[in-house]
Design goal:
The complex is a heterodimer of chains A (53) and B (406). Chain A is of the alpha+beta class and 53 residues long. In chain A, 19% of the residues lie in helices and 30% in strands. In chain B, a hairpin with an 8-residue loop joins strand 11 (189-197) and strand 12. The radius of gyration of chain B is 28 Å and the shape is globular. The chains are: A alpha+beta (53), B mainly beta (406). At the A-B interface, strand 2, strand 3 and helix 1 of A face strand 5, strand 19 and strand 22 of B.
Chain lengths: 53, 406
């Protein structure tokens, strides 16, 4: 299970982050981004799947 | 051919419609029908007044003039670019530089991903010994080997896939899927599935099972022709596409989609994947026909920005004493705003500025577009506001990539 967190930059922009297999992922809040779609599914309690390196 | 027209013009209308080339011998000095040996042989000439037969070419071949050929004509495989909707079908591009991949849902060679439930699926990269690629006229470089073990239940499955952007791709057309494959041992099957998906908020996915092919331990090309379903009446959401799924093992839960190949323990090698319009598998060619073009096509979905010690990746500046921002111009316009993936570790990265290097541990994405991204560090940076410099990798484990896969 991924542990997503929302991070806001000093410039006021926010992204979603999680760590997996030694990689840190920063996901833009863009509905066209499949990782963001996976995050939304996670928020809804659904199985999250997304692109992984 | 003019002789033939003259000949049948002397016969009734009924005999015209039933005409065969066999009537030609009745014409004095005419071309003998026995010159033709097979369907689609064509008549040409080796010189003035010297007719000759050119045997039919292979399916999908193109006829070209060639003064060096005996008949002045020859058949040539259709190596034209732009017909193959599979990107990186020859597996040349491997930006991730993967060495072994076992994670379900993960990518290995660019644009190709693996998925499994249960057991272990291990994909490893392989390199053809020069001259041993499975097709003459196209010297392949790489191919994946995919080992499937330990599956047993109805829910278990494994497939190797590529997601093609946009569900409109080849919709409503006759298409031909082709690839070369072999097994390390035995005669396992590969089930082929064409699966249209309609994106977030779109209609439910439509699966078209294509059939199964049985491999041997020698490279062979396998082809299948199907009608790709129309998308009439479908709702298309964000991020639609088509999956070409090559099923390597499938319990009964996936039997229909996988053309009933069943649970398998086997090791597969695959190369030269092509999906094209029409009912014939033409000569293999990559989507773009060039190495650089294929890399750019891959980079629409994934860009490796840095993974080598001392590699410069971006230019940046101290926004303040404790905040550095780095701008990266992506090499191609990506499919969408990308996710940034990076490794994190003590002094993995360096900001070379003002006569020295300010090392730090990680990045965070600030603003992103599909052409340009800004990343920053505000945890270890210590400098002078206004200084500009270059972002470099300071540790061999440093890594930065942008991904916008489907």
């Amino acid at each position: 299970m991924r542990n997503y967190v929302e991070v806001t930059s000093p410039m006021g922009n926010s992204v979603i982050q999680y760590e997996e297999n030694g990689f840190l992922y920063s996901i833009p809040k863009d509905e066209a981004n499949s990782d963001y779609q996976a995050y939304l599914r996670w928020l809804n309690g659904e199985e999250e799947t997304g692109t992984i390196s | 051919m003019l002789l033939a027209l003259t000949s049948h013009s002397q016969h009734s209308e009924a005999s015209y419609h039933n005409m065969t080339i066999g009537r030609i011998p009745s014409v004095e000095g005419g071309i003998q029908p026995t010159i033709f040996d097979a369907k689609a042989d064509i008549l040409t000439a080796t010189a003035a007044d010297t007719p000759a037969r050119l045997a039919v070419g292979s399916d999908g071949d193109t006829l070209v003039a060639d003064s060096a050929a005996t008949t002045g004509l020859r058949w040539q495989g259709n190596f034209a670019a732009g017909k193959n909707v599979i990107i990186n079908g020859d597996f040349r591009i491997n930006q991730r530089a993967f060495t072994s991949n076992t994670s379900s849902g993960s990518y290995n060679y660019d644009r190709f991903w693996q998925s499994n439930s249960g057991g272990t699926v291990t994909t490893t990269p392989n390199v053809f010994t020069p001259g041993t690629a499975p097709v003459a006229g196209y010297e392949g470089v790489n191919y994946p080997q995919i080992a499937v073990t330990g599956q047993s239940t109805a829910a278990h499955y494994a497939h190797y896939s590529q997601s093609i952007e946009d569900c409109r791709t080849l919709a409503g057309q006759t298409i031909t899927i082709s690839f070369w494959a072999k097994a390390s041992s035995g005669t396992p099957k590969i089930g082929i599935e064409w699966q249209q998906f309609f994106g977030s908020g779109g209609s439910s996915a439509v699966s078209t099972p294509v059939g199964a092919v049985t491999l041997s331990t020698s490279w062979a090309r396998y082809t299948a022709t199907i009608s790709s379903p129309s998308i009439s009446g479908k709702t298309i959401g964000t991020g639609s596409g088509v999956n070409l799924n090559l099923w390597l093992s499938a319990g009964s839960d996936s039997a229909t989609r996988a053309s009933s190949i069943g649970i398998q323990t086997a090791t597969f090698q695959i190369w030269g994947v092509q999906v094209e319009a029409g009912s014939v598998a033409t000569a293999f060619q990559t989507a773009t026909g060039t190495i650089q073009g294929e890399l750019a096509a891959c980079q629409r979905c994934y860009v490796l920005l840095g993974n080598t010690l001392n590699q410069p990746m971006a230019i940046g500046y101290n926004y303040s004493a404790t905040l550095a921002i780095f701008g990266i111009h992506l090499p191609v316009e990506m499919r969408g705003n990308p996710t940034i993936s990076s490794t994190t570790g003590t002094n993995y990265y360096g900001f070379v500025r003002n006569g020295g290097t300010d090392n730090f541990n990680s990045f965070t994405l600030d603003v992103v577009g599909n052409k340009f991204i800004n990343i920053y560090n505000s945890t270890e940076i210590s400098g002078t506001a206004g200084n500009a410099g270059t972002l470099v990798i300071s540790n061999s484990s440093g890594f930065l990539a942008a991904q916008a896969e489907l």
